[in-house]
Specification:
Order of helices and strands: HHHEHHHEHEEEEE
Helix content: 25-40%
Oligomer: single chain
Number of strands: 7
Largest sheet: 7 strands, mixed
Shape: globular
Length: about 140
C-alpha cells in the first residue's frame, strides 16, 4: 500500500469497508480526535467484524444515551503512538489504550489484540497507522 496522504478517519472512509466504524466514531464524537495530530495506532474492525456482533448491538450502541459506552469501546481500539506490525513481531505486550484500559497484544504468531486477529497491517496515515482486525474489542467485564 502506498503512503497515505489522509488522516485516519479519511483513510477509513476511503477504504469503504469501515462504514460501521466510521458511523460509530461519528456517533461518539471522536472524529475530530482521530483527525488530530496523533500519532495514533487504530485497530479497526471491518464491517464484517461489526456484523458478527449479536443482532441489534451496533444499533443500540450508536444511540445518544449509550455514547459513553460506545466511546469506551472505540477507545479500546486506539493506542497512542504509531506502532507498526514489525514493532510487535515476536513480542507479547500489554499497552494502555487511549481510554486507559490495557489490551493484550501478541505478536508471536501473526498479531492479535485481545484475541482479535490483525488481517491487514500497516495502513499508513498522516497521523498514525491503521491495522484491520477481524473482531470488535469489548471491555472486560
Amino acid at each position: 500500500m502506498t503512503d497515505s496522504v489522509h488522516d485516519i478517519v479519511d483513510t477509513a472512509v476511503a477504504a469503504g469497508s469501515f462504514s460501521t466504524l466510521v458511523a460509530a466514531v461519528t456517533a461518539a464524537d471522536l472524529v475530530e480526535t482521530l483527525k488530530g495530530d496523533g500519532p495514533f495506532t487504530v485497530f479497526a474492525p471491518s464491517d464484517d467484524a461489526f456484523a458478527a456482533l449479536p443482532e441489534g448491538t451496533v444499533e443500540t450502541l450508536v444511540k445518544p444515551e449509550n455514547k459513553d459506552k460506545l466511546t469506551a469501546i472505540l477507545l479500546l481500539h486506539v493506542i497512542p503512538g504509531k506502532v507498526m506490525a514489525a514493532d510487535v513481531a515476536g513480542q507479547v505486550l500489554s499497552p494502555a489504550t487511549a481510554g486507559g484500559a490495557t489490551v493484550h497484544v501478541d505478536g508471536t504468531d501473526g498479531v492479535t489484540i485481545d484475541g482479535a486477529k490483525v488481517v491487514t497491517a500497516d495502513i499508513a496515515c498522516t497521523n498514525g497507522v491503521i491495522h484491520v482486525i477481524d473482531a470488535v474489542l469489548l471491555p472486560k467485564s
